[in-house]
Write a structure and sequence with these properties.
With 263 residues, the protein is mainly alpha-helical. It has helices at residues 3-17, 24-35, 40-57, 59-67, 72-98, 106-129, 138-153, 159-169, 175-203, 211-235, 242-258. Helices cover 77% and strands 0% of the residues. The protein starts with a helix and ends in a 5-residue tail after the last helix.
Amino acid sequence: MDDLLAALLLGVIEGITEFLPISSTGHLLIAQHWLGPRPDYFNIAIQSGAILAVCLIYRERLRNLVFGLHQPAQRSYALKIAAAFGVTAVLGLIVKKAGWQLPDTVTPVAWALIIGGVWILLAERLAERRPGGSEVTWLVAILVGLAQVVAGVFPGTSRSAATIFVAMLAGTRNRSEATEFAFLVGIPTMFAATAYELLRALGQDGVGDDADALVLAFLAACVTGFLAVRFLLGYIRHHRFTGFAVYRIALGAALLLGLPAGS
C-alpha cells in the first residue's frame, strides 16, 4: 500500500478512536500489523492531532480557564488539571526510564480490550451507586493522573476509558463532567508526550522521509477527532457506555480467535 495512503488511514483511525473509550493505541497497533509499523513518535504525534480537535471544541472553556484564574472556582479547576498532568508527567518519565511496557503485539492488546470492556460495564454500574456529584475533587485529579500512566503502560486499555471511569468512581458521577475533565487533562499530557518523542527522534535519526506522512496523518486525526468528540459529547447525554464495552469485548475476542497458535 502507498505510504501516504497508509498514513492517512492511520490518522483516521487515531482520530476516531482517541476519545472514544475503545483504545486508540490498541487500534493503531492492530492496524499497523497490516499497514506497516511506525515509530513511537509517529503514533504519539498524530495523537496530538486529535488533541488539537479537543482544543477547538473546548476553546471557550480553555479561554475561560486562562483568563478567569482570578476567580476561585476557575483557579481551582485549572490547578487540578495541572496536578493530574504533574502526576502523569513524573510517573510517566519513571515508567519510561524503567522500560515498563507490555510488548506491542496483538495478544496483550486483545486481552486489554476485553478486560477494559468488562471494566467499563462494572465501573459505570458501581459509579451510579456511589455518593457524589458533578464536582471534580483533588482525589479525582490525582487518580486521573495515575490512570493516564496505567493506560500508557498497557496498550489497549484506552486513556479516555481509564480516566473517565476513574473520575466517576472517585466521585464525579456526572458523565459529562468526568469526560470533560479527562479530555482537558489529555491536552497538556499528549502535547508534552509529542514534544518529548519528537525531540528524541530529532536528536537521533530525525523524522526523515516520514515528515509528509506525519503531517497528513496529523491533519486526518484532527478532523476525524473533532467529529468523534462532538459525537461522543452528544451521545453520553442520553446513553450509557455499554455499547463501547460490548464493542471492545467483541473485537478482543475476534482477535484472539483469529490469531494463529503461539501469537
